[in-house]
Amino acid sequence: MQTGTLFLIPVPLTENAANKSFTAYLGDTVNAIGTYIVENEKTARKFLKEAGIKIPQSELVIHDFGKHKRGNSLVPFFKELMTGKDVGLMSEAGCPGVADPGAEIVAEAHKRGIKVVPLVGPSSILLALMASGFNGQSFVFHGYLPIDKAERGKKIKELEQTAQKNSQTQLFIETPFRNNHLFEDILKNTQLQTLLCVACNITGADEYIRTMSIGQWRKERVDLHKKPTIFLLYREA
Description:
By secondary structure, this protein is an alpha/beta fold.
């Protein structure tokens, strides 16, 4: 029996950014799919409504792949795909599979010989890199840095050294309520000439993206508390 296709459907990064995030093809796709694997059901249903889905929400099959469901068997998530039905995979925000647990679903799909189709949409990591002015030919996304202050300071210094040695952009994030602490640790553990880009609430009404040297940042005041932010370090060799 022929299997269905797994469509990777990007979700807006912030509130009221739907018109910046959708393509006509995405709209057509969500109206051709009745089954979804999602990180957050509430967020997913809201997104589908904004995307103009015409299928009644009560008729949708939603598989919750939230944090409490991970680590269990993946078999239930592939029931429809294995019987020939197309399925959409959605993150809570941004692109599924990128800094996202949905990568586990995608990997399993490949193991099962299921076709995987990524749709165009917003990725905070790539949008931040695009807007930073840093090296887009060589870059690394590190995800979250250590929580321990001493370990985090050590890691920041390592990233600065790697950036300079390889002329390579270093990207990382923090839980939004700890953003200001990370920002201060970056300023304390890097040299004045090193460049830092702060990309906050990308695509949002209060989007803030700015690149300056550490020396310049030390003279600035910025409040990143509870605002999704990407940090990028760079220093030419």
